[in-house]
Design goal:
The chain has helices spanning 44-55, 81-91, 114-126; strands spanning 2-4, 10-12, 66-75, 95-100, 106-112, 132-141, 149-152. The chain has 153 residues and is α+β, with helices and mostly antiparallel strands. It has a five-stranded mixed β-sheet, with helices on one face.
Length: 153
Amino acid sequence: MNSDDANGRTGSRRGTGQQPLKQVESRAPGWLIADLNPVNRSSRTVRRREWLQSERSEPSPSARLERWQLIVKGRVQGVGYRAACCQKARQLDLNGWVRNQHDGTVEVQAEGHLHALTELRLWCERGPEQAEVLSVSQGQLAPIREDWFEIRR
């Protein structure tokens, strides 16, 4: 037996053993039915996304700035290393510069928060696709509060 609801829809109430569909009202703009089912917290992807979100959140104003000098050795000149490094540093909101050295290495001086500097160091160890990085040595310098990142010649 079918009956009409308040919106004129028909739902089966008897004979099939199923309850009619229940319309759920939105509690807030953007609320979805999918929100009723909690996300599986044991999923590695979900945990990684949550970690990245918490790690990349805005640093506190009291967070200390550091300045690192990185010397990158290997086949790192003539492969677009400086341009790619500059782009990565800007993505990480770091300040400083990158330049080629006469001995075939690339020198990077970057200033920012520890987490961003660590990410840049990890990137420098890989470099762009054409580069072959052999080693990255690191030193710490006093911050000078630059507000840009550039390629130096």
